[in-house]
Amino acid sequence: MTLKNKQSNPEAKRLAATAAARLVQAGMLAGIGTGSTVFFLIEELGRRVREEGLRITAVPTSFQSRLLCMKLGISVSDMQDVSSLDLAIDGADEVDPNLDLIKGGGAAQAREKIVVAMAQEFVVVVDESKLVERLGESFAIPVEILPSGLGLVEKTVAGLGGTSALRLGVAKDGPVITDNGQFILDLRFPPSVDLRMVDQVLHRTPGVIETGLFFGMAHKALVGCGSPGKLTLRTLERPA
Question: Are 184 and 167 in contact, with CB atoms under 8 Å apart?
């Protein structure tokens, strides 16, 4: 099982998510991600819909986010029915200085990457606990795989110098099943391994659906920092 960072700050997450919600303008088709920070984003968008009359269409990356959007009165559209988005907003499990990311703690990285690829702009919302110097520093790299590819993918990962663990459910026996009906492998590699090379090899490996490595996709990160009563917002831009 992949664990969330226990040092994360809910109020800092809310600050970043609320700031990101202000980027969503009337008439936008907006990709909406998955996770604890995005929960605050959807809450704020729902408030704007109710109190400001904001009219947008959300394209959620998970069943959970879709249900919350609908509950709060936000119009939704299915991913397969669109080919481009004005904006995508999502959280991340790790963010490095180049704004490269690890995502997939919520087991939705394949759907999240599709939405990000369709967006004209991708904004990441996190608290400062997610900032790292090197990807894989504290968080495993999730990979969505076909169940039938488990043995081959595990062998490939071992050949690259990594270790893999099938993600197991918390309140049920057996593996976590994604919204796509597939398995998640959580991978770890020593610092000497080139993760870009790993990503390329995995994408050529039969049975791999998508990795949680997001290279060169984020345009901006809104980072909530500090402690309650002393919160600040940092804006990070992708290096040119």
Answer: yes
